[in-house]
Amino acid sequence: MSTFRSIEELVKSLDREKELLKEMFAKRKSLSFRYDYALEMTEYKEERIRYLIDYGVIRDTGDFLEMEDIYLKFFEDVLEVNEEINVSFVQDYLTRLNENIDYYLKENNEQRKYNYQREVKRCLKNIALTTVRNVMDLKRNMDNTYKNEPNYRIKKTKLFRLDEKRNNIALLIRKSEELIDYGQPTFFRVAMDVQMRNVVSDVKLQLFAIVESAKYQNIPRTIQNVFLNSKLDADFIKDTIVTDL
Question: Which domain of life is it from (predicted)?
Fold first, then answer.
């Protein structure tokens, strides 16, 4: 497989085939994006399709084409339409945060200390950003499940798993707040310059805003309402969404 050698090369390639990629992304839930349709969209220049395949942007599954997962996830994350709620990312950032704090406290070289401090700030920002996106994804997935899942048993199972995700998000929010407030007192005392103070303040504010959000607090009540009703129809589901969200 070939690889892009620069951002410029990557962006130019994606821009050249933007119509094809836009159509493939819009139909990503379909398993039937035909090769001949893609060929039509590239002016019947098969080498353009082969280029995207060779560079790992799309993959050939016979008569059909699919977007590679790395690009699919990138577009879903950027456009905030991701259906996967991955709380492990926050845990990874917490682990990296503690690691870089430890390195900072053990390092004597000022430049390397600065680099570790900068990485701590980046981890803190990513914790807040990822948590906010997870909550947005959670609400959107719950809403989609209410509206679009016709099988009640599957609906309950999906909602139960979404509720587990909500509990995991809440746990990671508490762990993040505890780490900032109590977990690393030495670091946050000696490394608390103006920029670090602003980052910490922004992160704590974002996490607090998530927990206090009415929509976030209504998620468990909304899920419980569905669990308590063994016979659901479309009107009840719509009423529940309107009332609780």
Answer: Bacteria
